[in-house]
Amino acid sequence: MKNFDIKKILPHIIAIVIFLAVSAIYCKPALEGAVLNQHDITGWKGMSHNAFEYRETHGHFPLWNPNLFSGMPNYQTAMEGKSVLPDFSKIMSLWLPKPINFFFLACICFYILCLTLRINPIIGVLGGLAYAFSTYNAIIIGVGHETKMYAIDFMPLLLAGMILTYERRYWLGLAITTLGAYQEIAVNHPQINFYFLIVAVSVTVFYAIKWIKSKEWKHMITSVAIVGGAALVGVAGCALTLFTSYEYAKSTMRGGKTIDIENGAVKKINTSGLDTSYAFRWSISMPETAVIMMPNAFGGSSSKLLDENSHVVEKLVNKGVPESSASQLATNLPAYWGGMSDPNETTSGPPYIGVIICLFALIGFIVVKHPMKWGLLAATILGIIMAWGKYFPGFNAFLFNNLPMLNKFRAPSMTLVIAQFTLPLMAVLGIQHLLYREHSKEMLKADFKKILYGVGGLSVLLLIMYLMQSYSSAIDHYIASAYTQKDGNDEMARAILAGMKDDRKAMFGKDMLRAFGFAVLLLGVLFLYIRSILKPIVATILIGLISTIELFGIDKEYLNADNFVSADELSAQQFTPTRVDQLLQKDKDPDFRVFNNESGWTQESRTSYFHKSVGGYHPAKLRLYQDIIEKYMSGGLPDENILNMLNAKYIIFNNPKTNQPEVSLNINAYGACWLVKGVKVVKDAVEEIQEIGNTNLKDTAVVQESFRNAITQPQPDSAASIRLTHFDNDTMTYAFNGTSNQFAVFSEVYYANGWNAYVDGKKTDYCKTNYVLRGLSIPAGKHEIKFIFEPASFYTGRTIAYIASIIIVILLLGGILMDFRTRKVKADAHVL
Q: Which residues of the chain are under the pLDDT cut of 70?
């Protein structure tokens, strides 16, 4: 303790205090006990409520969720494993309440990355705030994409571990890389993990080029081995999540499909991922890339509308429309005109990174000499091109079809997360290079012309975009159709579109001038520094204040006090049982399903909170179930035969007279299980899904030829019976009695990766029946039948993850201690 120097840790304490203060100020209502009203979190609560109720009774989460889409694995809603690791997310965010914790954690992780790059702590504070408060973060937190935000939070920590290793801090690099890899993967957002991997590989490649040029073979092999080994251990720590997710994904919409359904017609296909038409939805247009530094150039979010000052009003008034009517019409038109303006797509806001950050990143790419520079540049360019999606189809289709895992992801616009990471990092490297290197003023003078050329070139590009754009949008076609008269007169439609294009040009021009203003301000700060009017620390603080304040101004448009409500109010709004819920809860039958046809039954999980629902909300439904939805359950009331086989005993509908929900009893629902008179064998999936629409499924089961060996045709027996005797999420028990062989259909979703059938304790083959259910041939006699969900992926993954958690603790503590010991030995040797 005699050698303890408070001055060494004081800057870091100050940084933590600043991060804490800024995050708390931005999320002030959270300190008063308010919570965010997040759509996705509300949806998750509906999805997972059954699992939490189960855990209260049984002491653990179930593996199967019967309340979503007639039943699906519980892996993606609520699951727990076995680990010796503490909750590092809570520890590193100081147990702060949501959403303060998300911003604080992002600040801390980015600050750690800055320290590994030997960046001045003041610049690290600037960079941490810029990274944390990029507008995309505020947007996704507001809607409840919490796992995505955690993955964004931990990206800098993982890269920090890699950089430590590459800079020969092997032991500490091993520790931080292991921890970072574990945390990054454990939050379970593979898409963000994939985008981080692009950055990591790109940076590593350019480090490797440097090592190869200098023939540092031993260091290169050691570094790659440490980072690779640490990453593998981190991955192993998440084996439970990865094993179950990988297995489940193959059976979902993201795993491809064997049939294609369009306008009711069915044809056979074979894909291994999402369709490009679906995956490339939510692409940004090429000019829209400018929103990373011009947030309102394309109108902001899909929810924003034009105001009464719109040019539409002027155009309509000139056509003789009363001003009040013109103003009313204009204020109902969308302001957003970017690549996601089609009615089937929406955006919650721009991925704004900050004009100051973008400008310093540009300068950094011009003047910085660091092995990371080219890696960051390559990743940034690739991320931007990928974000264009359908607007740059040739290249992106090639990547989609050839880059492993990419065809599992949708929403290309999300790849701008890469730029959100790389540009702040390049910006802090640029500021460090400009203000804190030796002879920085002289070097800055020498580089100033390059900087002017770079900033000037960007300004000219924006000006060309302003002058050359058509200001058209995908929404224009729909607006033109809506305001064209039946006789074909489109005069009003053309006036409206002309006014909207003028509005769009004004939006872009206003934000362009805003960017120019900040560019002049930035160049002014650098000029004052060259002239010794500003010291480096003052210039840095000034840049940091400007950057943070202007980011705050944009962020507050998308996440502010209006997003917060009291916890009691939120619960009352979403999960207070209605009169219909209370009525259904009086039915003591343990097994029936509810079909809520009020609206959007595949996009709401409130019904799942209270009941076993035919519908639900989940981003990765089982492919079989999605096929049934597309064929028989889209557009109006679903096929009655399908609802019956899914045991939809109650149907909720909106009474048009009272505009209130009502419920009707479906007396024709087939129940939890039933015996059929015969089994119709069909060739393939196409025939199977078509046949169930033409068959009385109460009497006849439809099964594919591939399951023929598991089928025994039933024999007549009017007294034969089967009934559900015990229902548990992971175990269903049935009692059968019959004097001849029978075939039973169970109103439970077919999922072969874990569900096993047992007749009198003996494992027995069963088959996919009626496209989406289970069927079983039962011999004559009195039998107990059980279906037990016992997926090997869960048990194997849990064991591996537990062992890996112990190794992670050893590597983390051991790496830190060995790094301390190594540095102490070097310090002692230096003293001697």
A: 1-5, 827-832
